[in-house]
Amino acid sequence: MYRRNVLKVLLKSLILLIFGNSFVFSTPKKKLMTNEEWKQILTPEQFQILRGNGTEKPFSSNLNYEKREGEYLCIACNMKLFHSSMKYDSGTGWPSFFNCYEGNLKTRIDYKLLYPRVEYHCAGCEGHHGHLFNDGPKPTFKRYCNNGNVLKFITNI
Ligand SMILES: [Zn+2]
Fold first, then answer.
1. Which residue, 7, 40, 110, 113, shows the most beta carbons closer than 10 Å to its own?
2. Could you tell me the fold of the domain covering 33-155?
3. C-alpha angle 132-134-137 in degrees, rounded to nearest 5
């Protein structure tokens, strides 16, 4: 009897895990493809970052120095992630933002290092973009530390 209950709980958790996640990620612009399909349209570095939770070398993206007014989109699916007014110079070597377009990024806890970090990914394609820290400037005190090589900048000017 006890075993049967344990099985029931496990089954419920599994269902929640599968359907809970698909619910969290559901968005009308969702673009999901297999890894093989992503490899066809992404460079090896972009694939490593977006699909393998990778991190580019600091100061490797020209977007670190981008100061024009415009939009920062996900390079894989064109989801609008940040506006230039949300960007600031954190000095870390990665493009940094203190805010994002609400709902266009999703977060989850990443245990890749010894301590937990908040990882975030594009709501459109689920591609990994960076990590979220609480040492940003006013008014949010947040720092979206983004891989610049998986962003596409479109200037408004
Ligand atoms: Zn995307």
1. 110
2. 2.170.150
3. 105
